[in-house]
Amino acid sequence: AADVAVADYQKVLTDIGYGLDISGAYDNRTRIVFEAVQRRYRRKLVNGIADAGTIDILRRLKSTLPNVSVS
Known about the structure:
Helix content is about 55%, strand content about 0%. It is an all-alpha fold. The radius of gyration is 12 Å and the shape is globular.
């Protein structure tokens, strides 16, 4: 079953350059990409889990992205 929050995380991850399908499923590929983000931005704990600290990293990364509107 698709999870809206997971799909949102996957969208941010793809927007910052990680290759993921936006499926809403916390699959093995998503876990590996979360590990990559943790390895880059939070080396003290690399476990592939979308915990509060990792979600905070995604929020901060998302805030640096330009807002693009399509008309």
